[in-house]
Amino acid sequence: MFTFLRNLVGRIFGFDREINSLHERVRELSWDSAYGMYTRPAFLQFALVMPRGTRYVSFIDLDKIHHLDQELGYTEVDRRIKAMFSMNFRRSDVVARWYSGDEIVILFDSDREGADRKMVELAKSAHREGLSFKFAIGDWAVGKEPADDVIDALAENVRLQKASNER
After folding, report:
1. Is 80 exceeded by the pLDDT of residue 20?
2. One domain, residues 80 and 26
3. 97 with 104: CB under 8 angstroms?
4. Count of other CB atoms within 10 angstroms of residue 130
5. Closest to 117 in 3D by CA, of 147, 89, 153
6. CB neighbours of 135 closer than 8 A, spacing ≥ 6?
7. What gap in Å lies between CA 10 and CA 16, rounded to an integer?
8. Where is average pLDDT lowest: 20-34, 70-84, 103-117?
9. Are residues 118 and 54 in the same domain?
10. 48 and 83 co-located in one domain
């Protein structure tokens, strides 16, 4: 009865259209269509509802994306990144664009060996698209530490890798 009344009032005052529009906007903001993956806010929402336990997370920093954007154009680079990540991940793995266009995070629903195997496959897929990347994998104690803290530590590891390669 309550649901019926709420829906009726929503229709009368036009709230239902506004609510449906907001729901659609949230769905749009959760998905990065250029890369064919989730967004950072969507990833963090998944992180909040993950069952406790140990999961493996990879932070990826794509090499020279800004240079490639200038050389090949944004559309072509987006296509290559999307193709790179179109390989077979588990349906329960979560792949998300992080802060910028060259940072990606993967939450693996597998053991460390499975995560390592996927990263080898991803490197091959990147190579086929003319891309490369640096990455770090770490374990995340779900429910005991914030996902952001783990990912920040992995990002710092990758930053140090890139800095040592530039010397």
Report:
1. no
2. no
3. yes
4. 12
5. 89
6. 58, 59, 60, 61, 119, 158
7. 5
8. 20-34
9. yes
10. yes
Of 132, 120, 121, nearest to 158 by C-alpha is 132
Determine phi and psi for 109, rounding to 5 degrees. Answer: -100, 65
**CA-based nearest residue to 108, from 28, 53, 33:** 53
Are 24 and 40 found together in one domain?
A: no
Residue range 12-20: mean pLDDT, rounded: 63
Number of Cβ within 10 Å of residue 2's Cβ equals 6
Same domain, 100 and 86: yes
pLDDT in tens, 108-125: 999 999 999 999 999 999
The whole domain housing 9 covers 1-32
Alpha-carbon torsion (34, 40, 41, 47), positive or negative: positive
Question: In angstroms, rounded to a whole number, what is the distance separating the alpha carbons of residues 86 and 128?
Answer: 12
Residue 1, pLDDT above cutoff 90: no
For residue 16, give the amino acid letter: D
Task: Indicate the length of the chain as a whole number.
Answer: 167
